[in-house]
Amino acid sequence: MIELDTLAAAFVLGLMGSGHCLGMCGGIAGALAFAVPQASSAYRAVLLLSYNLGRALSYGFMGLIAGYLGSRITLAEGGLPVLSAVSGVLLIGMGFYLGRWWMILRHLEKVGSRLWRRLQPLGQKLFPVTAWYKAIFLGMVWGWLPCGLVYSALAYSTTQSSALSGAAVMLSFALGTAPAVAGGGFAANTLKRALNHRVFRSLTGAWLIAYGIWLLVSLFIAGPHHHHHH
Which end of the chain has fewer CB atoms within 10 angstroms, the N or the C? Predict the structure, then answer.
């Protein structure tokens, strides 16, 4: 059974990191919002929601795989503490990255960019996005964009007890990122300026570092008898 605080943490991770999301997806959300020049704002909203739905589907699928693999590793003696430690370290790395103090996660994004090079042409073929179903497909493709924030959330989803719990963590994370990406389609520059403000970035970075440290400390306190309660 997945705990609410786990889902809340994933949601907050998405919400707090949404400045980073806007940097990565804001342009495409803006392009979607104005893809059909004569469209009503209601239709533009439908396109943006469809895009976010597609992105959430990809994240959920990744979470399903991560949760499944994680649950298999957890069955091995000492598997969960290792996964939790990796998750904590990645969250700390993401905190430094968002605060722009140390860009260590850039290296991780480079690894993901190999897969992205294959997928990107599929996304390009969907432009101009004039229908909601095209926007869903675009979101599904764009969900695989190399992103340290997504990788941090994925690492967190491997610490769950099942494939479904892993998917739930990623869907909760997607929900947290949605307001910025959807809102960014309409007010990209204003929102981007606010979310990329040094104070907001520093607070977000500090929160992620603190959360990562808390994960590591709680592991240390739990000690060798640490086991996951379903």
Answer: N
Residue of 182, 164, 13 whose CA lies nearest to 88: 13
| pLDDT over 90 percentage in the chain | 52
CA distance 224 to 209: 24
Distance from C-alpha of 189 to C-alpha of 27, rounded to nearest angstrom: 10
pLDDT per residue as tens digits for the range 72-123: 998 887 888 899 999 999 999 989 988 889 988 888 899 899 999 999 999 9
Where do runs of H (alpha helix) occur along 3-40? 4-16, 18-33
Mean pLDDT score, 149-166: 94
How far apart are the C-alpha atoms of 159 and 93, rounded to whole Å?
Answer: 17
Please check whether residue 122 is in contact with residue 33, taking contact to mean a CB–CB distance below 8 angstroms.
no
Query: Cα separations (Å) of 80 from 66, 92, 150, 164, 224?
Result: 13, 18, 20, 17, 11
Within 10 angstroms of residue 60's Cβ, the number of other Cβ atoms is 21
Q: Answer whether 141's CB lies under 8 Å from 126's CB.
A: yes
Can you tell me the distance from the alpha carbon of 208 to that of 99, in angstroms, rounded to the nearest whole number?
10
Q: What is the DSSP letter of 223?
A: G
